[in-house]
From TrEMBL, chain A:
Main subcellular location: endoplasmic reticulum
Protein name, UniProt field: RING-type E3 ubiquitin transferase
GO terms of molecular function: ubiquitin protein ligase activity; zinc ion binding
Subcellular location: Endoplasmic reticulum membrane
Residue ranges, annotated region (Disordered): 337-425, 510-553
PANTHER family linked to this entry: E3 UBIQUITIN-PROTEIN LIGASE SYNOVIOLIN, RING ZINC FINGER PROTEIN
Catalytic activity: S-ubiquitinyl-[E2 ubiquitin-conjugating enzyme]-L-cysteine + [acceptor protein]-L-lysine = [E2 ubiquitin-conjugating enzyme]-L-cysteine + N(6)-ubiquitinyl-[acceptor protein]-L-lysine
UniProtKB/TrEMBL annotation, chain B:
Similarity comment: family membership: Belongs to the ubiquitin-conjugating enzyme family.
Protein name (database record): Ubiquitin-conjugating enzyme E2 G2
Active site as annotated: 89 (glycyl thioester intermediate)
InterPro entries named in the record: Ub_conjugating_enzyme, UBC, UBQ-conjugating_AS, UBQ-conjugating_enzyme/RWD
Protein origin, superkingdom: Eukaryota
Stored PANTHER family: UBIQUITIN-CONJUGATING ENZYME E2
Sorted UniProt keywords: Acyltransferase, ATP-binding, Nucleotide-binding, Transferase, Ubl conjugation pathway
Record organism: Mytilus galloprovincialis
Chain ranges of the UBC core domain: 4-164
Enzyme Commission identifier(s): 2.3.2.23
Function: Accepts ubiquitin from the E1 complex and catalyzes its covalent attachment to other proteins. In vitro catalyzes 'Lys-48'-linked polyubiquitination. Involved in endoplasmic reticulum-associated degradation (ERAD). Required for sterol-induced ubiquitination of 3-hydroxy-3-methylglutaryl coenzyme A reductase and its subsequent proteasomal degradation.
Amino acid sequence: MRTVLLTGLSFVLTGAVIGNAYYQKKQFYPSVVYITKSNPSMAMLYIQAFVFVILMGKLMRKVFFGQLRPAEMEHLIERSWYAVTETCLAFTVFRDDFSPRFVALFTILLFLKCFHWLAEDRIDYMERSPIISLLFHLRAITLITLLGILDLYFINHAYYSTLVKGASVQLVFGFEYAILLTVLFMAFVKYILHTLDAQNENPWENKAVYLLYTELVLGFIKVVLYLAFMMIMIKVHTFPLFAIRPMYLSLRGFKKALHDVIMSRRAIRNMNTLYPDATPEELQAGDHTCIICREDMLEFSKKLPCNHIFHTSCLRSWFQRQQTCPTCRMDVLQAPRPQQVPQTPPPQQQQPPQQPQMPQNLFQGFAGMPPIPGWPPQQPVQQPGTSGASTTGTPATPTTPNAPGSGTHTVSATGTHPSTTWPTAVPNMPPFMPPMFPFVMPYGGQGMPLPPTRPEGLTDEELKNMEGQERQNVEARIQWLRDIQCLLDGAMILIQQYNTVASQSSIPNINLSGTPSNNTPTDTNNASSSSREKSKESSPVVNNDRDLVKDLSDLEGATGYTAYRRNDTHLGRSNTRRT
Amino acid sequence: MAGSALRRLMAEYKQLTLNPPEGIIAGPVNEENFFEWEALIMGPENTCFEGGVFPARLAFPPDYPLNPPKMKFTCELFHPNIYPDGRVCISILHAPGDDPMGYESSAERWSPVQSVEKILLSVVSMLAEPNDESAANVDAAKTWRENRMKFEEIAAKTVRKSLGI
Ligand SMILES: [Zn+2]
Ligand SMILES: [Zn+2]
């Protein structure tokens, strides 16, 4: 009602303006001149033109869309706001060639944009309306054709005017219409797919796949267009601020499409190759309704690793959105290799048991050590009477203060025999051990040997290397844990030696049974020999991928790797949703 | 045919009419469009919304049940988990991935296991027990937390309004 009133008012005012001019000048040309010279009259005429545009829009809308649904209206208004804001921003860039013609061109652009959006929405609606009338097809086809012709015309116009007159505002129009053309093409493809789908009696499984790929290709084209536009604009004019938001959106859309394609391909491949078809017995046994479509599963169903059964086609369309089990949300991309993800692998097991080769030179390096005959098999030498006291007490506190640059280890065994200290040079202590770590081994009673928690001793770069979830970060963490292991091994050797010496000179032993799993004395030789071998390696610790995979899975929990990876999949999933 | 979404919605509608859950009525606005539903939700007993009848609209996406519907109360409802414009903000209506509030576990989110009935039952329990941690209506959450008397007063007013008194 109000719009009718306003429209009427504008017509009346326009009539008044023209009538006034004609009344004053009596002739046609003088009145035209009078009107163009008079600012209020011109303003009135511009408003009238605007009203005409709106009326035209309404007419076109009636012709092509009929009544708009509330959702479409909402969508249109929301998008128009952004478009108007961006147009105003664009005006600031091209304020030099600001003219009525220029405003008119932008208005036409906005106008056509609205129709593209409406066409998009309307064609999306096809999928959910049970009956599609002939009128709908007629409207859709004429609209798409008309918009396509207009887009092409404007692109062509922009192209030639740029060729003839050089870069101008036509550049913006050219790109805008090119983008609109991609939108229109997408709508067209959707229209064709929906129409074909509607002809079929059965649901068409591959439709979603085609849609996904079309989206991917068009997303790529859009991104390329926007990037080219950015580059040219920066070169010719200034940074096109008004194109930032749509460019960001198209980048995001492309990334999502790419991610969707990759993840869903992977999940569907898994489904086709890894998961078994559900047997009739399994279908009979349980509730044989597919939870996705709520229809009976008679055939063509697959069983996921979590034992949930779905229609193959339902599962496929679900995997195009998310790669989880619909019922229990198990991540299907994680699941196929469950044997490689042990639950709580102790980090000490990272080094595979090796041949018990006794590193002789390791012990020759200890100054003043007596030769130890048949050391490995005879370890540990324990004296039952004192072992209890030594585990719970504090006799074993081997500290290895490793001053920067000095390769000297000092073992001071406090407790019953505090005076026994060996200032020993250990040439075969791990050379890759970062020498700047002042290192204290907190061996209390039966406590675990805690890793050195002194991050302030690390350089920023090393800390940075260990953060994150990239492969090299995990490798850095593994390296760090290995360093710790080597230090532990070194300490173990010193304790062993202390025990040997002590057993010979009948002083209490250090009981090692309280120390963690693999560093029990029987294993020490293995661990130390392996650490020695490691220490000889100048090549990176991780030699091949299989090693790394094993290491990674072993280190779960120790490095926080699990948590990071879970996070990762969660983040990844956030992109999977199709809107 | 128009696809599995329509068939599933029809199945759910049939299920809802055969075994209607207590305090809930729901169905398509008209038989031509199964993707727009209207629901009537009774205020749960022994809460400040008791006795009220609240109309809401559900809009289903074309790929339902792969994506959740949108739900919006068409009456005024002052509640921590309902936006001032009527949109309902509960985790079951969010696809895993989009997390407007940032602290919902994906286990409570939408998946094809859920259904219209489960959504409406969740809404009923949301009416009974507002979750003021992920507030959609900050005012309501604040009132609910700090001035329960006033919250109940407003609720009683909406109940009367919903009955047309
Ligand atoms: Zn199914
Ligand atoms: Zn499952």
